[in-house]
Amino acid sequence: MFDKLKKAFGGSSEPEAPKVEEKVEAAPAETKAEAPKAASAKPRIGYIHLSGCTGDAMSLTENYDILSTVLTDMVDIVYGQTLVDLWEMPEMDLCLIEGSVCLQDEHSVHELLEAREKSGLIAAFGSCAVTGCFTTFARGGQQAQPKHESFLPINALVKVDLALPGCPVAPEMIAKAVVALCEGDLDYLKPAMDWAACDKGCGCDVLTNVIRQGLCTGCGTCALACPTRAMGFSEGRPSCDRDRCIKCGSCYMMCPRSWLPESRIKKETGL
Fold first, then answer.
1. Predicted confidence (pLDDT) per residue in 157-169, tens digit
2. Which of 96, 188, 218, 266 could form a disulfide with 271 if both were Cys (CB 3.0 to 4.6 A apart)?
3. How far apart are CA 8 and CA 127, in angstroms?
């Protein structure tokens, strides 16, 4: 199942698919009988924490009323600093990466690059990984001796296959995304795949790309999605308090009008 997903995401497993088919066809009867058992193996999931507040990990581990079945029955957690007693990174079908990457932290950069090499799919897990979020403003170092350090979203260094935005990510989103991956439901995952390429992380992007384009319907989703209440909503229109905005991108990504094909709309309406 994950091989099909890798192909859809443009993963590196595509050239290997014919080899697998040839082995199955040429194998003796005993091996063929074992094939369904191998195909039904649970997906191998990894988790990596880079630079962030650990809120996404709390959504992952502290909401067992929602995630217990997913995490224990449907997948195998094979890697994670706080989840698995394992030092060497194994091969993974999916790796959830939380937090932005600090360019001055050689260990984090190396771990991110290794995860891309050993993972079939990479998911930017939470807004720090997706847009950089509040870490964009961080200098790093100690308070008594601050240092200038650069924090970037992980797609600045590696290819990201899907993104789960939020500050933090909602447990329901984690559970549904993992179930969709297990079932190979690419239609359900389409928004997450599109989010992986999104570079809009500010409330100002909603004003520029939605409101000023005449696309806003006044639904208020952007204000409801904002974790810091930077997005206000009055008389059918949102507003953005730039001093409160942490650049998490939740308002833009959750806006139902931000993903409309603007070029096609203009072509069909003659604008």
1. 999 999 998 888 8
2. 266
3. 24
